[in-house]
Write a structure and sequence with these properties.
The chain is of the alpha+beta class and 369 residues long. It contains ten helices and twelve strands.
Amino acid sequence: MHIRVLTLLCVACLAVFYSLAQSRTHTALDPIDTYVRAEMQNEQIPGLALLIVRNGRVERAQGYGYANVELKVPVTPETLFQSGSMGKQFTAMAVMMLAEQGKLSLEDPLSRFFPEAPASWAQVKVKHLLSHTGGFTDYPEGFDKRRDYTEEELLKIVEAIPLAFPPGTDWSYSNLGYVTLGIVIHRVSGEFYGDLLREQVFEPLGMTTTRIISEAEIIPNRAAGYRLQQGGLNNQKWVSPTLNTTADGSLYFSILDLARWDEALREGKLIRKASYEQMWTPFPLDNGQPNRRGYGFGWVIASVNGHTVIEHEGAWQGFTTNISRYPDDKLTIAVLTNQGAADPDVITHHVAGLLIPALTHETGKKAEP
């Protein structure tokens, strides 16, 4: 009797061992998993979430590493990361929705919303801010990120900075342009842009955890952000609460919510087809040529070996993010990390090439506009 029990136990142990061995073999043979883990080690990324949507189906939603290094909390598909400038596509969506509702026009000059602004703003239109072709610059040197600002105070800072070039004649990435768009949204809708997004985008799409950043509130599954300093990992730098609510990219989201967002974009759920096409077309300068970055409205449009890619990255407070959508191939890849110097776009591009060799990006280079 004892021999029989012992035999059964040995068989069970062997079954468990075989199962674990098969699991390890599967991981070792999974080129995506192997690559992601190696890249995390190379870039010292503590935590990462990967989303792959192919042919309208979530093929992979996987967490790697730690959402919180100090507490050893693993990343899961539910983990929330800060968006960085990936959040600009949501601000752009809010503007496009308001345009379809007749509350503003993309041709409206900023003087319509800010009659007290400098005379030069009369030549800057909403479409210029969406495409970074308005001549707006970025946060000025000496800007105090640890101070709280009202919308009016931020607006005065932006108004005091001269335009870098005549609107429509060049392209220059401008966070302040999108900060200004958030104030435009508030003025025409009567709502803070984050509230408008919650009511008209997040809740209707079932993006239940996507929201404006708040470090004061208790928010389940929130990741901690990290930065590299002298070769080691440190916690993110602190910024004032109001600077985590501006429309240049101040969101929390998970890869599960990004899957719902991707579905809405793919199926045209929020705005008309013509509006999506406008967002995803490189905005032309006054000379008729596309801007040099291939920027549309909240998205960069590029080509990889003749295949279109619509994408955007972000970096803020110890987080880096990227989403790359390949509409010709019905493929979307998103990577969220909690390391401020990481290159998630490199990872999304490499994974795309592993899945579809024709999408292989040249190493170290951005997609061509």
